[in-house]
Amino acid sequence: MHEMHNMPDSLYIPSKVLTIIGAINWGFVGLLNFDLVAAIFGKKSFITRLIYTLVGLAGVYLIMKHKKKLAMKKHEEEIKGEKRYSGKQYSWSGIQ
């Protein structure tokens, strides 16, 4: 598995803020057909495109961070020898 050691934690809070801004903007687009970012900075301006790009990169960063966290948790469980309940129960009679 490829480990990501170069993901600075200092980007976590700004990424969360940008992702929330993007979610609110998409909520406005979906509910009201109103693009707040474009209304503030101009529909085809460089700033608007930059904000959209930063929101997208923030989302990718958070996905990678979450994936890394899940991998570390799984690794820690394997080291401890913990087993998770799968939710399935098996019996010889086939009745569950």
Order of SSEs, N→C?
Answer: HHH
The largest pleated sheet is described as: none
How big a fraction of the residues is strand?
under 5%
Low-confidence stretches: none
Estimate percent helicity. Answer: 55-70%
Shape: elongated
Measured between the Cα atoms of the first and last residue, the distance is 36 Å
Structural category: mainly alpha
- Rg (C-alpha, Å): 21 Å
The overall pLDDT, averaged over residues, is: 84
Number of helices: 3
- Count of β-strands: 0
InterPro entries: DUF378
Organism: Methanosarcina flavescens
Keywords: Membrane, Transmembrane, Transmembrane helix
Protein name: DUF378 domain-containing protein
Structure description:
- The protein is mainly α and 96 residues long.
- It has a domain at 8-45.
- The chain is built from 3 helices and no strands.
- The chain is elongated.
- The two termini are 36 Å apart.
- InterPro entries: DUF378.
Question: Which secondary structure elements does this structure contain, and how are they paired or packed?
Answer:
Elements: H1 12-32, H2 36-41, H3 46-80
Helix pairs in contact: 1-3
Main traits of this protein?
mainly alpha; elongated; DUF378
Write a compact overview of the structure shown.
This protein is an all-alpha fold and 96 residues long. It has helices spanning 12-32, 36-41, 46-80.
